[in-house]
Design a protein that fits this description.
Strand content: 15-25%
Helix content: 25-40%
Shape: globular
GO molecular function: methylated-DNA-[protein]-cysteine S-methyltransferase activity
EC number: 2.1.1.63
Catalytic activity: a 6-O-methyl-2'-deoxyguanosine in DNA + L-cysteinyl-[protein] = S-methyl-L-cysteinyl-[protein] + a 2'-deoxyguanosine in DNA; a 4-O-methyl-thymidine in DNA + L-cysteinyl-[protein] = a thymidine in DNA + S-methyl-L-cysteinyl-[protein]
Subcellular location: Cytoplasm
Structural class: alpha/beta
Strand order of the largest sheet: 3-2-1-4
Radius of gyration: 15 Å
Largest sheet: 4 strands, mixed
Enzyme class: transferase
Distance between the termini: 41 Å
Length: 163
Amino acid sequence: MKQHTVTDSPYGPLTLVATDGVLSGLYMTAQRHRPDEETFGEPDPAPFGETIRQLDAYFARDLKEFDVPMRLEGTPFQRDVWNQLRQIPYGETRTYGQLADVLGNIGASRAVGLANGKNPIGIIVPCHRVIGSTGSLIGYGGGLDRKQRLLAFESGASDDSLF
């Protein structure tokens, strides 16, 4: 059974989706690879209290690591990539190549990028922390402007002009 709710954030409305009461999606407006809204289930804020509390604490700079239960549905390779994303510390970045190397396949940076782009739980599974090999901001489903703003936010910048 799926349920969803929408919560506000400094980066626009976030749609939260739960499958059987467990967070299975966090989508921004106009996000690439955003599923059709008909798949989000019935509107019901009940399963999302802790997720919203942690998101609010993150945006207030009071939380750096999320610990909400999640249901990440994807291929085994995608789940491996998403698990590696969760290992990138707050305020730090990794390149697609570095993630491919950690996964044991240095030549898989493009595959890592594709899996990264299909991450169903943005922000909490921090795909925004992955950058190009030259330090450039590439490949963010929520838009490069949001990626830049999230990275600047996590760096502690007082404005969004880090990149």
